UniProtKB/TrEMBL annotation:
This is Nitrogen regulatory protein P-II. It comes from Aquirufa nivalisilvae. One of its GO terms (biological process) is regulation of nitrogen utilization. GO terms for molecular function: ATP binding; enzyme regulator activity. SMART domains: P-II. Coiled coil: none annotated. It holds the Pfam family P-II. InterPro entries: N-reg_PII (IPR002187), N-reg_PII-like_a/b (IPR011322), N-reg_PII/ATP_PRibTrfase_C (IPR015867). One of its GO terms (cellular component) is cytosol. PROSITE patterns: PII_GLNB_DOM.
Length: 113
């Protein structure tokens, strides 16, 4: 199992969510976040804020997927998040040790199906 953590522009959330559902990856957690990448927000204008302290609003989409679904999940995010511009976002991928569905106590990959 892998945890996919995608930090993207808020305007891309709906399309990514729809794409994931269509790809049969419906389980996700979405968190509003603020962040800075390489440009520290320089390329996207914010009035009245010291440039080096700019944190732009982004959304973090978290999906825990089977190894089998990993590339599909990444493709959906890339296809829907990319404008080819700075600030399009970033994807981090982690190994997941275990998952437990509380209702059934099911563990492992069965818990994320
Ligand atoms: N190394 C990192 N660690 C933690 N969060 C990061 C990291 N890189 C990017 N982020 C998060 O991802 C968001 C989007 O990053 P962004 O797309 O600007 O990356 P970038 O490396 O600057 O690439 P680009 O040059 O295409 O803009 C940031 O606002 C921040 O929240
Ligand atoms: Mg950037």
């Amino acid at each position: 199992m892998k945890k996919v953590e995608a930090i993207v522009k808020p305007s891309k959330l709906k399309a990514i969510q729809k794409g994931l559902i269509d790809a049969n990856i419906p389980c996700m957690t979405v968190v509003p976040v603020r962040g800075a990448g390489l440009q520290q927000g320089y390329s996207e204008i914010y009035r009245g804020t010291e440039k080096s302290l700019i944190l732009l609003p982004k959304v973090m989409i978290i999906c825990v997927v089977s190894d089998e679904n990993l590339e599909k999940c990444i493709d959906v995010i890339l296809d829907n998040a990319s404008e080819g511009n700075t600030g399009d976002g970033k994807i981090f991928i982690y190994d997941v040790q275990d998952a437990i569905r509380i209702r059934t106590r099911t563990r492992g990959v069965e818990a994320i199906k």
